[in-house]
Design brief:
Blueprint: E1 26-30, H1 36-43, E2 47-51, E3 57-58, E4 66-67, E5 73-74, E6 77-78, H2 83-95, E7 99-101, H3 107-119, E8 127-129, H4 137-145, H5 152-179, H6 189-207, E9 212-222, E10 225-234, E11 241-242, H7 248-257, E12 263-275, H8 283-294, H9 298-310, E13 312-313, E14 319-320, H10 335-348, H11 394-410, E15 415-426, E16 429-440, E17 466-478, H12 487-497, H13 505-514, E18 518-521, E19 524-527, H14 529-541, H15 548-562, H16 568-571
Parallel strand pairs: 1-2, 1-7, 7-8
Antiparallel strand pairs: 3-6, 4-5, 9-10, 9-17, 10-11, 10-16, 12-15, 12-17, 13-14, 15-16, 18-19
Amino acid sequence: MAAKTTTKKTTTKKAAGATAEAKGKALVIVESPAKSKTIKKILGNDYVIEASFGHIRDLPPKGLGFDIEDDFKPTFAVIPEKQKVVDTLNKMAKNASRIYLASDPDREGEAIAWHVREVLKVPEDKIYRIVFNEITPKAIKDAVANYRDIDMLKVKAQQTRQILDRLVGFKISPILWEKLRNYRLSAGRVQSVALRMICEREAEIEAFVPVEYWSIDALLAKDGFQFLAELSRKKSGAKDEKINIKNKEEVDKILADLEKAKYKVSKITTRDSQRKPQAPFITSTLQREASSKLGYGVSKTMQIAQKLYEGIELGEEGAIGLITYMRTDSVRISDDARDAAKEYITYNFGDKYYPKEPNDYNKSKKKNVQDAHEAIRPSYVERTPESIKKYLSSEQYKLYKLIWSRFMASQMENAKIKNHTVDIEADDYIFKIGSSKVEFDGFLKVYTDDEAEEQKKFPDLKEGDVLDFIKLDPKQHFTQPPPRFSEASLVKQLEEYGIGRPSTYAPIITKIQQRGYVEKLDKALKPTILGRTISDQLVKHFENIMDYQFTASMELKLDDIAEDKANSVNVL
C-alpha cells in the first residue's frame, strides 16, 4: 500500500461516534498488550483491542536498506518474528468496521502506526490514528471522537533518525572490525557519544592531582550546651578576608594565634527566604530522582513506570492507568489536571497551601523540548498512594508515590524559610554557625526537598554573649576528583547537552553495558578497556560524528523535520 504524502500534522477528520458500525466491531491496535485490558474496560464490547508488540517492520538487516542516490528512499520489510502478528492484525482488520491505530504519542509511535497501516490489506479510509497521553475514560473517548490522519512529518523525522543511525552504524562498524579484529563490534550514533562522555570522565579522574586543604572548628558552649562553629574569615582592615588554609604550617600558626582568644557573639543575621517547588517530572528528572531516592536504575524505573501507565488491577475496579505517558520532555500539564490538583490541595490542606496564581513551569521551557504531551503525573489525583497501596508491588508503590507527591508539590505554595547566621569573634578570626528553619512548610508537606536543611541545635544566642571555649578541632582534607557517572548523572549530562530524547536514555545506557563497553561498579559507570579503545578509535577517525554539538544539533534538526521547518533529504 502506498504511503500517504500529506504533511498535515493533526488534521481532525469528521467526528466519529464511540460505537462501532453494525457490520462489525471496531479494532483498536495498541503497541503493548498490557494496555489492552485497561482500554477494553473503557471502550466496552463494541471494540476489540489487539497489540502490534512494538515495531512490525524495519529496514532489512543486511545492507543499508535505502538508496543514497534516490533521496535516501528506504525499503522496509516485515520483521520475520512479527509475521504472525501481521497475519493476525490483517485477519481482524478484515472483519472490523473501522480501525484505530493507538500506538504511543511520540515519533516512534507515529512511525509504528504508519507501518501498521502499510501492512493492513483494507481500504485506508477505514483506518484512523488516535493518540492519548493517559489511559483514562476521558482521554480515550476524546481520542476516539477526535481521530486524525497519521502525521507524516513525525514519521519522516523518525525515518530520518533511523536512516542516520544506519548510515553511522554501517559506515563506522566495519572500521572497528578492521581495527579490533577479534571483536564483532557496533557503533551507534548516540550511544557512542555517551560512551565518549564516560571515557573522558575516567580520563579526568586518572589525571586528577589532589590538593591539600584544612578546616578548623571550635567546640564552644553556653550554659552547658555545646556546639561547633567553623572558622570562616579573618579581619583585614575594613574588609574581612576568607580563610583558605593550605597546609599544616598555616594551621599551626592559626592555632597559636587563637591560643588565648576569647569567643564572643559579634553579629546575628536573620533572613527570610522562600523555596519554590520543582516542576512535575519529565523522563530525565524521574529517572534521576528514582535513582537518588529509591536506588532504581534507569531501565528499572522505566519498566515500573510503563506498568503504571498501562494499567494496574485495582480489585473490583479492574485495570486502571495510574500515570500519564512516561516518555516526555515537557513540564506542561492540562487544565483539568491543574484544577483537580487545586481542588485536592485546598480541600485536604487548606487555601493557604495553594498559590494565588497557579505555578507555571513553561516560562523556563528549554529550546529543544518537543512538548508533544504532558509532564509525568498521576492520572487521578484522588488515587493517593496510600489508598491503592494494597494493589501495588513495593516498587510500584514507591515510584507511584514519588510521581504523585512531586506533581502535587509542583502545584502548591512555596515553603517559607527563616535563615540564621551567627558570627563569633575570636581576636582577629571569625567563626560562623548557621541554620535554616521552616516557618511554613508549603509544598514540603507532601514532598521532601533534598535542599531542606535541618535546624541545627545551638543555644539561644545574643550579640555580645561571651562563650565558653572547649577546644579547637583542625582537620586535613584533600580535593576529590569528579565522580564517575551514575546512570542518573549520565542522563542529566546527556539532557544538558541536548543529546538523545526521553525514549532513548534507558536503551543507550543498557546497550553500552550489554556490549561490554561499560561496567557498573557500585552504581558508577566505568568504561572497560574495550570501551575506551573503541571510544579512542571513534574520536580519532570520526571526530565530527563523535562531537557533542553535532549529535545535539541532529536532535534539533529532527525536531525541525517534524515541524516542517527542515527537509529530511537535505539534513541527511
